[in-house]
Amino acid sequence: MDKAKKSNKRLKTARELQKVVTDYYVQCIEAKSQGKPVGWMPPMNGAIEIFYAMDLQPVFPENWSPVCAAFGLTPQNFEVSEQMGYSRDLCGYLRNIIGYVNGLMNDKESPFGGLPEPDILLTPGGGCVPVMKIFHAIEKKFPKAKIFSADLPQVATEEIKEHHVEYAISEMHRLIDFLTEVTGHRMDYEKLKHTVALSDRACELWDEIMSYRRNIPVPFSAAEMGIMFVMVTLQGTQTAVDFLTRVRDEIKEKADSGIGVIENEKLRLFWDNIPLWYNMGLFNYFEKSGGVVVAETYSAAWSLRMDPKDPVRALAMKSLMSYPLVSCVSINKRKEMVLKACKKYTIDGVIFHRNKSCVPITLGQMEIKRELEKQLNIPSVIIDADHMDERNFSVAQFQTRADAFMEMLLENVI
Length: 414
Ligand code: SF4
Prior knowledge:
Layout: H1 12-33, E1 38-40, H2 47-53, E2 57-59, H3 61-70, H4 74-83, H5 92-101, E3 120-123, H6 129-141, E4 146-149, H7 162-183, H8 189-211, H9 229-233, H10 238-256, E5 267-272, H11 282-285, E6 291-296, H12 311-326, H13 331-344, E7 349-355, H14 359-362, H15 365-376, E8 380-385, H16 395-413
Parallel strand pairs: 1-2, 1-3, 3-4, 5-6, 5-7, 7-8
Helix pairs in contact: 1-10, 2-8, 3-5, 4-5, 5-6, 7-12, 8-10, 8-12, 13-15
Iron/sulfur cluster is lined by residues 91, 93, 128, 130-131, 327, 358, 360-361.
């Protein structure tokens, strides 16, 4: 197995994703050239719907990192950030994007023409420390960009109280006022309701798509998780709803016909933590032993339903909940979600990706591992790697651990 490898795409619609990705980045470049204000922001919050409703262009530097990984650009970007003094121990998204904006950014040969420069920066006051630091570094690089410093309470989802929601609502209004002032674009609240309704529909479709993964054999595996691109960059658009509808139709057809990812599915696996973006082919590795990665940490991350009748409140809730759903803001919640997913998708074994590049999602894995064994008698294995930096991934070590784990699981099912 190579260190970098693309996954096998078995879904026709997952192969169509390339066009959706290209169209989105072309749209970002065109927005800039047509004078539409471009705002850079972190993913997984309610600002995306506000931007689309106000006819502004959202761009996600974090999401650009998997694109760089897929195109093999990360080594160059890491070289730039490391020369600037950023340690190899820091988050790979941070090192990649800082390297990119200070290196390849204006290279016309960049994939999709690269990222357009930001007119607005939405710097987060929550989430993890690296994501806040990414934006502080970007602010220095683009001193002309107008900056909105968001301030959201960082609380576990089960501890969100009405006063947190009220505060988040006031932050949403402050963002809308700021965008009106710096761009001259006004908020049309009817359009916002429509945008939130599209966002909610995308989440509903996402849930439906995930529900087919309960089928044995499973019609769709983690190797095709790239479809979540539309949940990150296009939530609130008809494009996302249309794409997910086509994905749902194809998966439903496979599920109804009993067609699985592989012919002889023997083991159902769960993947915890971010995938290795430079090696999505790793998900196919388990297939030679009859294993399929049926679910992953991200499966539940986009299950947030939103009420379009009260769009600002819905977006405030989304902003409060999205990040804690995947990170370890609450270990109890993370534990509950992994255990629930293992029961829901009839999981035989769990792969914990101990991600050198992401402490917030890696934290708590040992406790979850113990509870899986104690409560559900589900074995697990730890794979040491990095979601962005292939220098922290050893193919030989991965194969040794993965092969031994699969052998042990197969003994249990025979
Ligand atoms: S959550 Fe993890 S991967 Fe995402 S920015 Fe923070 S440290 Fe990096």
